[in-house]
Design goal:
Elements lengths: L3 E2 L2 H23 L4 E7 L3 H16 L3 E7 L5 H13 L5 E4 L9 H7 L11 H9 L7 H14 L6 E5 L6 H10 L3 E5 L6 H6 L3 E4 L17 E4 L3 E3 L2 E3 L4 H4 L5 E2 L6 H21 L10
Parallel strand pairs: 1-11, 2-3, 2-4, 5-6, 5-7, 7-8, 8-11
Antiparallel strand pairs: 9-10
Protein name: Bifunctional protein FolD
Keywords: Amino-acid biosynthesis, Histidine biosynthesis, Hydrolase, Methionine biosynthesis, Multifunctional enzyme, NADP, One-carbon metabolism, Oxidoreductase, Purine biosynthesis
Pathway: One-carbon metabolism; tetrahydrofolate interconversion
Length: 292
Amino acid sequence: MSARIIDGRARAAELRAQIATEVGTLKSEHGWVPGLAVVLVGSDPASEVYVRMKGKATAEAGMAGFEHRLPSTVTQAALLDLIARLNADPAVHGILVQLPLPPQIDEAAVIDAIAIAKDVDGFHVQNAGRLATGQAAMVPCTPLGCLMLLRAELGSLEGRDALVIGRSNIVGKPMAQLLIRDSATVTVAHSRSRDLPGLCRRAEIVIAAVGRPRLVQGDWLKPGAVVIDVGVNRTPEGLVGDVDFEAARQVASAITPVPGGVGPMTIACLLANTLTAACRSAGLPEPQGLTA
Ligand SMILES: NC(=O)C1=CN([C@@H]2O[C@H](COP(=O)(O)OP(=O)(O)OC[C@H]3O[C@@H](n4cnc5c(N)ncnc54)[C@H](OP(=O)(O)O)[C@@H]3O)[C@@H](O)[C@H]2O)C=CC1
Ligand SMILES: Nc1nc(=O)c2c([nH]1)NC[C@@H]1CN(c3ccc(C(=O)N[C@@H](CCC(=O)O)C(=O)O)cc3)C=[N+]21
């Protein structure tokens, strides 16, 4: 068997086109556009790439982009001061502080300073809590993108055995919450899990969010499994995922590639969250199909 390759790049392009249309309507009917502020501290090369991609996608969707660059030596107080100004700026509907932050900055304190309604990353404790308790939340972009791909592939996730590998606050945990909400049976594995291959072999859905190149082997997979590879690992041979793609595609029924799978969906979902946040702030109806 050879797996269907899930084209995240194409799905993300569709989503961005839908968002651009909605933004055009907002502009012509209401005379304003959604605005996304991206804050980059320091000059980590990978972060630079992501911030540039986000800026480009924002502009192409017709949204207003505000980029704030701060030196790696910035103080916590100065960063919190910028966030306070962005919170108060009516042209800014979404705020993203690129992670990771330098060691002198308390990441949790920074995230919790972002206005809940503008937290388009969905990292604020209150958005995490809302997601966990089934209230309307800003949902983290990467898990949201994975969920969209899974629903498109499988339709209903009800009763499916899903394995999430990774328990980070930004990917693994919110991914598990979304799968629970869609009535999948969810297992969350991490570095202390015993028998990861055995856990994998039971799963109809595997979501790998680990950060270890090609950790998940082809013979760990249940035949016909749907595999979502969140990993983005820079190796001497180039960008690779957390799944051994060539081996896995012989066993899986569908699999996301790296690059071209989850990554582009993350960026598209950031725009989706910004549009959703903008509509909510203006009391306008939310466009359909952009949230979980
Ligand atoms: N495509 C995209 O849009 C995005 C991609 N990423 C990528 O996804 C990956 C994960 O990101 P993130 O969640 O932030 O990473 P973290 O480093 O925060 O979390 C990694 C998780 O993997 C677990 N883990 C580590 N080693 C193993 C192992 N050998 N077996 C099982 N579990 C293990 C860790 O366990 P423990 O908790 O016990 O330490 C932890 O829970 C990275 O490659 C990152 O680059 C991230 C965000 C967006
Ligand atoms: N506050 C915050 N929010 C984030 O969402 C956030 C963050 N910080 N810090 C870093 C991670 C990582 N992340 C990615 C986004 C897009 C791709 C992506 O588009 N990847 C392309 C490849 C791009 C390349 O060549 O590097 C792909 O997979 O096809 C990957 C990873 C968002 N993150």
